[in-house]
């Protein structure tokens, strides 16, 4: 696989981006199955349970654009080092939290740390990877993330059963510390040296005019797709544990296995999904993914036991994987060369709004009606997004992509 303009060996590339990403996602996955249950242990209603996800999104939301600008001024590497270290600290304090609102504060801090890492890594990909292979590289990158995410929930659920519901947070801190060490020793700056001075100088000029220039109809419709895509993943992370725990009475270990089944199924689609978005276009992956995801979300209320919810959860993973890394590929396709960090901050902000708003709305629907209605509302939103993506989002993949020597 060619890495375009990346002037490093694949091994070094893997050590600098894939390895730290794996351990960050492994840690994230460790607390996924117990997060809603941990929040519920403070005696709060469903709507507030979703706030643990929202608080993390708020941390990212408030810092995405400023951090994107910093990435353009100071480079990508500093953010990839500081971000994981901040997550380590916040994970430890989350496990020691004595109140729900204290937990929310630490989740905001986690969000800021994750934003540092995510924006920097996206800018690195935009710097380094040619558009003709971008879908495959991003899809593979997300596949590495999914390996960590897939292993995390099952292990985290078992850890919680063995040592208590707080214990996965400390394992989360340990896993992310490994990521911090990998970033510290292996990550190098990807911004070309001959461009650093010019791009950093231009980054100083980011202003209202720059922001308004992004608010064109094609970009905003693509951003809406990104917005809904984040709601899709937030819904899966909130609804499945609540439904599995409160309706099906599953254990934390079983809930972790259900989530892992979804992630492993998603992982199987990494190579096919990346090929689809590079061969036939970003929309060719996204539209079917949203249609199928909507249909499968509507099946969850009909699951009655561990086996049936695991099967449906796995189907969600397959459907989600069809889109590969399409939304991130669109962002990299659209990002202006002189403001890549800023644009990635803007793009991530839109997604984080979805992550922040989606779980609260889902929780409110569950409180006002029943949890089954939350699945149906999510399904409707998926169908709506499939329609708007097909009708209004412009294809960003070039018809005649640049061929790299040695590319497969």
Quote the distance from N terminus to C terminus.
6 Å
Question: Residue-averaged pLDDT, rounded?
Answer: 81
* Helical content class: over 70%
- Which stretches are low in confidence, meaning pLDDT under 50 for 5 or more residues running? 1-9, 401-408
Percent range for β-strand residues: under 5%
What is the H/E order? HHHHHHHHHHHHHHHHHH
Main beta sheet: strand number and arrangement? none
What Rg is obtained from the alpha carbons, in whole angstroms? Answer: 20 Å
Instruction: Kindly name the structural category.
Output: mainly alpha
Count of runs of 4 or more consecutive helical residues? 18
Shape by Cα distribution: globular
Secondary structure: number of strands: 0
């Amino acid at each position: 696989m060619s890495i375009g303009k990346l002037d490093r060996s694949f091994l070094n590339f893997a050590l600098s981006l894939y390895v730290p990403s794996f351990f960050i996602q492994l840690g994230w996955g460790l607390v996924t199955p117990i997060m809603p249950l941990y929040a519920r242990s403070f005696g709060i209603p469903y709507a507030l349970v979703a706030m643990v996800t929202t608080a993390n999104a708020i941390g990212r939301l408030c810092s995405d654009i400023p951090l994107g600008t910093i990435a353009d001024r100071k480079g990508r590497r500093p953010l990839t080092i500081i971000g994981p270290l901040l997550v380590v600290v916040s994970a430890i304090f989350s496990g020691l939290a004595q109140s729900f609102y204290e937990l929310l504060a630490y989740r905001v801090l986690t969000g800021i740390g994750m934003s540092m890492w995510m924006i920097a890594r996206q800018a690195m990909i935009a710097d380094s990877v040619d558009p003709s292979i971008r879908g495959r590289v991003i899809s593979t990158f997300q596949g590495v993330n999914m390996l960590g995410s897939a292993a995390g929930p099952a292990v985290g659920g078992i850890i919680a059963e063995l040592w208590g519901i707080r214990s996965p947070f400390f394992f989360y801190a340990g896993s992310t510390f490994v990521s911090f060490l990998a970033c510290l020793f292996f990550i190098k700056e990807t911004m070309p040296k001959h461009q650093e001075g010019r791009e950093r100088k231009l980054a100083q000029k980011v202003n209202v005019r720059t922001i308004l220039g992004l608010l064109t109809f094609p970009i905003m419709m693509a951003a809406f797709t990104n917005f809904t895509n984040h709601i899709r993943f937030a819904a899966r992370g909130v609804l499945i544990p609540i439904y599995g725990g409160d309706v099906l009475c599953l254990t934390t270990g079983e809930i972790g296995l259900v989530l892992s089944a979804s992630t492993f199924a998603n992982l199987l689609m990494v190579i096919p999904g990346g090929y689809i978005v590079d061969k036939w276009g970003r929309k060719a992956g996204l539209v079917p993914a949203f249609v199928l995801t909507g249909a499968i979300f509507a099946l969850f209320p009909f699951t009655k036991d561990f086996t049936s919810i695991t099967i449906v959860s796995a189907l969600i993973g397959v459907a989600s994987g069809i889109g590969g890394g399409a939304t991130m590929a669109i962002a990299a396709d659209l990002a202006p060369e002189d403001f890549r960090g800023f644009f990635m901050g803007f793009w991530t902000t839109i997604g984080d709004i979805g992550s922040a708003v989606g779980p609260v709305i889902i929780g409110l629907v569950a409180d006002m009606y029943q949890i089954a209605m939350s699945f149906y509302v999510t399904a409707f939103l998926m169908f709506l997004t499939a329609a708007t993506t097909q009708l209004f989002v412009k294809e960003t993949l070039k018809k005649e992509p640049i061929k790299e020597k040695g590319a497969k």
